[in-house]
Every structure is written in structure tokens, then in C-alpha cells.
Write a structure and sequence with these properties.
By secondary structure, this protein is α/β, with parallel strands linked by helices. The chain has one domain: Alpha-Beta Complex (Spore Coat Polysaccharide Biosynthesis Protein SpsA, Chain A), CATH 3.90.550.10. It is about 35% helix and about 20% strand. It is built from eight helices and eleven strands. The protein has a seven-stranded mixed β-sheet, sandwiched between helices. A two-stranded parallel ribbon has the order 6-9. It is globular and about 55 Å long. It starts with 12 loop residues before the first strand and ends with a strand.
């Protein structure tokens, strides 16, 4: 049984904000984040004035460049930079409500390892989701619950928070070396990947009602069919990974607790003797 770590009753909080060409949104989003928290903006090599905006509207924020491409790499870079006891994943487009951060922190302080936002729970909702996206999300959530024995209500939602000490369980790709070549986990698959790995690690999950707001400025890069297929691939890939980990775990346990060796029969022959005169045996072919 997993032993729960000792955690502070008044945890510090880090908010990781991946951003690529989101300057106009950050002008509104960053001032709305609470005071007294660590804010980390991870820039995806923006071509607009993102860095200047961050310096002006949130001068206490850390501004770092991601090391490869993709939202997954940006989040991993932010997680590695964070110093808080709790890490909050927060989108830069204005769709996440900063007033809900306290809900996530409270869920973690009450015993959860991972607090997952849900637009489906009572008190949640979305001003942005379409019928096609909602139908696909429900189907992918059902599939994940079947494959990983979870009880998620809203798989494809990226507003989450977790204790920093669970990062090793997520086993995210290392942030170095710097490269233009993406690796598994660097892209938009990151949110589903994290949900699957949380399940495999048997972490305590608390779902938190959350309302998804409309993007403030600019157009979303989300494509319902293309990204839905990406999530489906992620579920399949992570399911295979989980089975592989399970097989290795069973093998390790078997090696740690070997079965008693039976007395040799006539079908067995001694192979060698150790210095104490004891014989090792192998069954004959």
C-alpha cells in the first residue's frame, strides 16, 4: 500500500502558464491571478510581444523558454521550474477562471494527490464546447474509465492541480536536451497522458467543478476530429505502457519472493555445487 507523504497544511502554490503568441490574452489573464503565488510563464518561442507583456503586467512572474515544441514540453519545463508545494496547470487564453484555484488547492489539502477539473460535475460547465466535442469527450472518457479502471467525468480538460511530490509518478520526458524534435508527451497529448499515468500510479484523485470560459482573443488551435484522434492514440499508447509496467512489476515481485525449490526428482540433474556443497537444479528438457 502506498504511504501518503507528509505535506504542509499551508502549502505554497506555483501556477504554470504555457503560452505561444498569447500576448493580448496575457494582458488580462496574468493580473487576474492571485497574489502571493509563484507564476511561471513558459513561452513557446512567441512571435508577438509576449515577453514584454509579462514584464509589464506581472513583473514578479518567471518567464522561461520551453526547450522543444508543444504544450507538453512547455508544461514539463514549467513543472521543473516550479518551487511550490502545489502546481496548478493554467491556460493562457482566458478559458480558465482564476477564482477556481482555491477549489483545487482545497481538494488537495483535503487529501487528494491530484485535483482534476470537470465541466460535467454540478457547478461546472462550458461556454465553449460544441456538441461534437462534448460527444467525443464523453466517449473518450468512457473508454479511459474502462481501460484504466478510473471514474473520470471529463477526460479532455486541462485545468488541473497536483502536489509537486507526485511529479516522479508522471514520468514526463526530460526537458533537455533542447531540440526541434518532439518526443512522446511533448504535444497536446500531455493532458490525457497525465490522467492515464495518475491512474496507473494509483494516486488519489478529486474532481473539482469548473466552468470553461470563452477564449478572450485570437482563434483556438483545437480541431475536434484531429485532436480527438490524438487523444484516442494517447489512450491506446498509455494502456500498452501500463500493461508493460504491470508485467515488469509482476516479474520483480516474483524475483523478490521466489517459489521454494522442490526436492530434485529423477527427472532433474545437478548442474553445480557451491562452496557449501549445496546443489542448484534445473529441470531437464
Amino acid at each position: 500500500m502506498r504511504v501518503a507523504p507528509t505535506r504542509p497544511t499551508q502549502p505554497t502554490v506555483s501556477i504554470v502558464v504555457p503560452a505561444r503568441n498569447e500576448a493580448r490574452n496575457l494582458e488580462v489573464v496574468l493580473p487576474g491571478l492571485p497574489d502571493g503565488v509563484e507564476v511561471i510563464v513558459v513561452d513557446g518561442h512567441s512571435q508577438d510581444d509576449t515577453e514584454q507583456v509579462v514584464n509589464v503586467v506581472r513583473p514578479d512572474a518567471a518567464f522561461v523558454q520551453q526547450t522543444r515544441r508543444g504544450k507538453g514540453n512547455a508544461l514539463a519545463v514549467g513543472f521543473a521550474r516550479a518551487t511550490g508545494d502545489i502546481i496548478v496547470m493554467f491556460d493562457a487564453d482566458g478559458s480558465a477562471d482564476p477564482a477556481e484555484i482555491d477549489r483545487f488547492v482545497t481538494a488537495l489539502k483535503n487529501g487528494a494527490d491530484f485535483a482534476k477539473g470537470s465541466r460535467v460535475l454540478a457547478g461546472g460547465g462550458s461556454a465553449d464546447i460544441t456538441l461534437l466535442r462534448d460527444t467525443g469527450n464523453r466517449a473518450l472518457t468512457w473508454l479511459t474509465n474502462r481501460g484504466f479502471r478510473t471514474r473520470y467525468t471529463d477526460l479532455c480538460y486541462g485545468y488541473n492541480a497536483f502536489w509537486a511530490d507526485v511529479l516522479p509518478h508522471l514520468d514526463l520526458p526530460p526537458t533537455h536536451p533542447t531540440s526541434d524534435t518532439m518526443v512522446w508527451g511533448d504535444g497536446f497529448e500531455i493532458e490525457t497522458l497525465i490522467n492515464c499515468r495518475v491512474a496507473v500510479a494509483d494516486l488519489r484523485v478529486a474532481e473539482v467543478p469548473s466552468v470553461e470560459l470563452l477564449r478572450l482573443f485570437g482563434a483556438s488551435n483545437l480541431h475536434a476530429v484531429r485532436d480527438g484522434l490524438r487523444v484516442l492514440k494517447t489512450i491506446a499508447t498509455e494502456w500498452r505502457r501500463a500493461r508493460s509496467i504491470s508485467r515488469v512489476g509482476r516479474a520483480d515481485r516474483a524475483n523478490a519472493h521466489p517459489r521454494p525449490v522442490a526436492e530434485p526428482t529423477s527427472a532433474q540433474r545437478p548442474l553445480s555445487r557451491d562452496d557449501g556443497g549445496r546443489e542448484s537444479y534445473r529441470a531437464s528438457a
